[in-house]
């Protein structure tokens, strides 16, 4: 007769959801990182569009950090990394559309596909254009700013559609309010970027701190925070609202 061996739990032991005594921990353990489960457990809302936005925002800031750090290395690096910076901004704009459009048109997959495909194609074309060396010069600074604004404000159409589609839903109105704040912040940052205020008023005084490009980045981060709030609100709305059958 073989001796009985006691099972010892270790850090690598697989645990099942039923092993959790606390009901809240059990509920969390049963959820996928990429799914938001509805209260009745009948359906689940994918969370991947939210992570698309986060990835785009982090990718944009990483590209910007690399550009500011390495663009001064040489002329070759300067051309490459500033183009990478512009491509990162386009990436962030495109990724910002995924969460609100996906959740707002969750019950309308055709419109969802049309809007997401349109902004993705527009973003790819913008990135290809911005990666061209000819558009990296300061002469095309206004053109780049206009391109970013066109991409950003192309969201007016799906936003208006979402308001009409979900008329009377307070979550949607609050989310649109945050998106308007985001648009104002982006526009203000772009205004500083194009006008080169305040360094144009006092050249040399803002070379280290207070430069228009730095102000632009502050507005970009604030706009991203506003968009985060809008996306979470529309996600909460989708969790609470079932699609009509």
Automatic annotation (TrEMBL):
Coiled coil: none annotated. Keywords: Membrane, Metal-binding, Transmembrane, Transmembrane helix, Zinc. It comes from the Eukaryota. It is found in: Membrane. One of its GO terms (biological process) is response to sucrose. InterPro entries: AdipoR/HlyIII-related. GO terms for cellular component: membrane. Its main location: membrane. This is Heptahelical transmembrane protein 2. It comes from Rhizophora mucronata (Asiatic mangrove).
